[in-house]
Amino acid sequence: MFFPISDDDGDVSTVSFVTHTLLVLNIIVFGLQWMYPEITYGWSVIPREMVTGVDLIEPATITVDGGYVNVPQAPGPRIIWFTLISSMFMHGGLGHIGGNMLYLWIFGNNVEQRFGHLRFLIFYLVSGLVGSIAQIVVSPGSVIPMLGASGAISGVMGAYLVLFPHNRINAIFLFQIVTVPAIIVLGMWVVTQFLGGWGSMGSSGGGVAYLAHIGGFIAGAVAGLIARAQLKREPDSILYRQYQRDPNSRLWW
Predict the structure, then answer these.
(1) Three-class secondary structure of residue 183 per DSSP
(2) Domain tally for the chain?
(3) Domain around 174
(4) What's the pTM?
């Protein structure tokens, strides 16, 4: 499995205001979670709350591997569906936020330059919403908190794969750093998510919300395809210069 650490973004000529702001906001919210743990349980997405519209405030008991586990709950926002947004900026631990922010830092700036700042922000939020909804659909009665930017960042990765399949990614593989095309790194990531999602079907416990990753990724890939087909004016990049040399290459890149 490849673990990406950087990419070839030498052609990114604009400041990625939205990507940087999202990074900062995620870190700030994680700090608030650390200081006030009740935020995690009150402002995460609870699928049952989304389906019923009722804010759960009492601990719930679930069965995991034949045993019983109490899941803490806490009061959430007045409009409970707002947790679909707030949960995108929350994380379950240092490893969780560290991995997500690394991926956002690597892939976000390229996609933001291609989409533009406002379009990128809307795209990011929509990808996160699609990811959460996908997970809710397969586990509507779950009382386990869902949180993290993974759905939105999976959308960024889906768009990146479509828009920049040949960009070079520096990644760790078998304890050494290698440089490979994005289509290989992200392609392998997609496969692991689908396999993980298939294996988690029917599971009642917590863990990785694979369906949120898959839903966000598909939303991002679709947005990337639309961008390739519709954007008339693009910022300077390897792709833009290739289009100028050969307009027909848009069909193949």
Answers:
(1) helix
(2) 1
(3) 3-251
(4) 0.85
